[in-house]
Backbone:
């Protein structure tokens, strides 16, 4: 945790505030429709399948597989220059949705498509926690 | 069988590259001047002027919104002027807006794109493009960039099809060969496969020469109805078929991440034209990144899935090849002018079909398939064009 975190932070929508409150408690929540069971990630105002406003937040298992990835060596946005090289990946969550995140604690050459990963919580500031993933 | 409603009668373009002293108004004025002279029309017959939204340059966007273009260009009978947005898909949204104006009774519409990037610092551009291409809540906090996004798409496409990085690099080599035949292209030096593969790694598997460089540039075209076009110029270029598809905002939300519904847009355009890939003499593919050129070439029906890389590597899409692709060198070698890459390819399409493509001319070109798309590979707009009515 650092007070000098100078990277862009998520600026939540009204309907995603519960997600970010959840990550602060190290809970990875997904917005599930009460009517049709669809999970929207990213969440939006209403269920993008059936338009229902009724939803519950379900805790994700944190398990997933790497769908694809890329390791950035040069040309990252300025705030991330010092972190290079770092690997971003699309993760297929066990619950269905695909999300973008960062792979931590692994060398670039260890990362492959199809690899099993699990969520880890990175408290980047006192108010913000990002969900990242590590190889299992 | 196709019954074309609309046609393009003239085009203009300025050199692409780093020209910090050339203002957007100067770019727009030259591109428009050349398009009007090329069409050989009286400028006062133009009654609609559309400007493409520029990236990051709010001052220029305000100028266009506030009606600078008709005044500066002396379009005395202008009835409508507007700024039209939609990122990389702007050649399509501009064209659709122009078509709407023509259907509403306008006579001729002048469409202009002008972009100056060279007055921004590399940091401002890196940040601007990260923000434009990525989701501010769910992607930007992780350090997402356009190059990383494209790297992920390339990695997955290679995984699914067995396409090699050498084959992807061959797209860049072919693009450069075409750019060397274009006076207005930014890159003027030949490029080898070894240079592409050996350049600095940016975002795996993409090296520096596989990522395009932002540049200043602009172009313009004049559109009217097919009926009127026949009376005005010797060789109008007709739009025979069109199709569009939207896929996603965040690439994670694409149903088929390495195809992005492109095929249904392409098939609709072929169907409307009553033509297919076998009839096409040229493919002008807006991809910006080389793996997407291969993906779209396959979706356009020129190769089976996974075989485009071999086809490019064998040189069939290069000058003198049997299926020319991206005859202006595209973003990779002509230069990436933001929202203008698609417009530049559209203008090149018209030039090819009018026989005005100079050293890059494909002899006897009659039918052509063209696409553009925007956002983070969010959509595909496809057109089939010809210098003859079927």
Residues:
């Amino acid at each position: 945790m650092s007070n000098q975190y100078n990277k862009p932070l998520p600026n939540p929508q009204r309907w995603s505030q519960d997600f970010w409150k959840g990550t602060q408690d190290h809970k990875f929540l997904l917005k599930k429709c009460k009517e049709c069971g669809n999970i929207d990630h990213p969440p939006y105002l209403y269920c993008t399948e059936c338009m229902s406003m009724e939803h519950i937040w379900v805790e994700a298992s944190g398990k997933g597989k790497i769908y694809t990835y890329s390791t950035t060596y040069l040309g990252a946005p300025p705030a991330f220059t010092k972190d290079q090289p770092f690997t971003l990946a699309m993760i297929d969550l066990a619950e269905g949705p695909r999300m973008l995140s960062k792979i931590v604690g692994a060398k670039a050459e260890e990362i492959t498509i199809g690899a099993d990963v699990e969520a880890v919580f990175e408290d980047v500031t006192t108010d913000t926690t990002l969900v990242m993933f590590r190889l299992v | 069988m196709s019954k074309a409603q609309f046609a393009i009668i003239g085009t203009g373009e300025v050199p692409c590259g780093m020209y910090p002293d050339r203002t957007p108004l100067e770019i727009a004025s030259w591109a428009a001047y050349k398009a009007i002279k090329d069409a050989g029309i009286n400028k006062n017959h133009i009654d609609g002027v559309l400007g493409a939204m520029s990236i990051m340059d709010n001052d220029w966007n305000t100028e266009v919104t506030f009606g600078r273009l008709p005044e500066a260009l002396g379009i005395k009978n202008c009835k409508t002027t507007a700024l039209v947005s939609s990122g990389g898909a702007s050649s399509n949204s501009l064209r659709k807006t122009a078509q709407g104006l023509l259907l509403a009774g306008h006579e001729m519409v002048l469409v202009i794109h002008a972009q100056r990037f060279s007055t921004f610092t590399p940091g401002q551009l890196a940040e601007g493009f990260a923000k434009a291409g990525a989701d501010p809540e769910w992607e930007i906090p992780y350090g997402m960039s356009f190059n990383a996004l494209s790297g992920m798409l390339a990695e997955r496409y290679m995984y699914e099809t067995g396409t090699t990085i050498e084959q992807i690099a061959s797209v860049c080599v072919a693009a450069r060969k075409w750019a060397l035949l274009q006076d207005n292209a930014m890159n003027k030096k030949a490029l080898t496969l070894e240079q592409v593969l050996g350049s600095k790694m940016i975002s795996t598997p993409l090296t520096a020469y596989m990522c395009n460089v932002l540049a200043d540039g602009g172009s313009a075209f004049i559109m009217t109805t097919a009926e009127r076009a026949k009376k005005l110029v010797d060789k109008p270029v007709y739009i025979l078929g069109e199709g569009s598809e939207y896929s996603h905002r965040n690439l994670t939300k694409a149903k088929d991440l390495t195809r992005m519904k492109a095929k249904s847009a392409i098939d609709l355009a072929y169907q409307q034209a009553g033509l297919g890939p076998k009839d096409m003499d040229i493919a002008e593919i807006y991809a910006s990144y080389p793996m997407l050129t291969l993906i779209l070439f396959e979706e356009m029906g020129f190769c089976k899935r996974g075989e485009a890389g071999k086809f490019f590597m064998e040189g069939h899409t290069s000058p003198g090849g049997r299926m020319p692709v991206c005859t202006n060198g595209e973003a990779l070698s002509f230069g990436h002018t933001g929202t203008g890459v698609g417009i530049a390819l559209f203008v090149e399409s018209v030039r090819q079909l009018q026989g005005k493509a100079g050293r890059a001319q494909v002899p006897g070109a009659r039918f052509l398939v063209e696409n553009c798309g925007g956002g983070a590979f969010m959509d595909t707009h496809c057109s089939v064009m010809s210098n003859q009515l079927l």
Remarks:
- The interface with chain A takes residues 123, 126-127, 130, 135-145, 147-156, 159, 200-206, 208, 211, 250-253, 257 of chain B (CB under 8 Å).
- Chain B has a mean pLDDT of 94.
- The first strand of chain B starts at residue 6 and ends at 13.
- The first helix of chain B runs from residue 24 to 39.
